[in-house]
Amino acid sequence: MDQEIASANIRALFHQQAPAHIRIMNARRNAKGAITGITHQNATAEMALQYCDIIITAARTVGKGVVDVEDNDSWERATIYAVPLVRYMGKGTEGLQKMREEFEVENEGIAIPAQVRWLANPRTVRERRQNGEIAASLVVFVVKGNKVAQSLVKKGIKAAGVWYRV
What's the pTM value of the predicted model, to 2 decimals? Predict the structure, then answer.
């Protein structure tokens, strides 16, 4: 379906006589359900957003749930230190998806558009935990906006009532 959204957009932009370089060349759905599209190499997201109405209309012909199009150029990567493995890794913990939801609920203005991930290979982290080598690890995630990222670095982020250093 995701490639059908890209195809619908390419055709719609062509029919509306948008410049040839203004095209959505690839589309993928992330874990949160958001569809991310990649523009042609000679176009920026800002250029494509000038055709926002056409892009949304075309995408809705394939996926009725499309509600908005926005620029993701301002996504910033953040790292959290000392995340307890007992809470976020292993059966019954709901893993990092739970952490992501806690971030969004407990920190006003935070939008995390992609999955939170362990910095190291999860298998390695799990093995080191089982061997008693580590009890915590680092996670990485992205947030929308440079100001949000700077604020997190300055004050940290809260999950389940615990503040973490970013």
Answer: 0.58
